[in-house]
Design brief:
Layout: E1 6-22, E2 32-36, E3 41-42, H1 44-61, E4 68-76, E5 81-85, E6 91-110
Antiparallel strand pairs: 1-6, 2-3, 2-5, 4-6, 5-6
Length: 119
């Protein structure tokens, strides 16, 4: 009987950085809020969860992930996000979000499946 060894790559994100780039291209103000087109404030937790979701979807899409350290750069183009300077009140559209994720990929061997009697 031929037994196949099943392997899986586990990804451990060690650091995730992102930069929000306003339409003007100038660095975001030190004190700002993100708002959607409806004017609702977008919390930093919501942005973080969204960015982690993007990473998880990309991880599932690529099957050629190899063990070892990895740096992944992603540029997101949000269509409905604005940045508001809380000091001046200036409101400007977000041009892009640059995401850089540092990860370590580890290959693990899954235990073999035990044959079952299907009768």
């Amino acid at each position: 009987m031929c037994r196949t060894k099943f392997r899986r790559i586990l990804t451990n994100y060690t650091r995730v950085d992102f930069a929000i780039i306003p339409e003007s291209g100038i660095a975001k103000p030190s004190s700002c809020l993100l708002v959607n087109d409806a004017g609702d404030t977008v919390k930093s937790d919501t942005v973080r969860d969204y960015l982690l979701g993007v990473l998880m979807r990309r991880e599932r899409e690529f099957s050629d992930v190899l063990p070892g350290d990895n740096v992944e750069r992603i540029r997101l183009l949000p269509r409905n996000l604005n940045i508001v300077d809380t000091e001046s009140g200036a409101n400007e559209r977000v041009r892009q979000i640059n995401l850089v994720a540092y990860s370590t990929n580890e290959e693990i061997e899954l235990p073999p499946l035990s044959p079952r009697n299907l009768n």
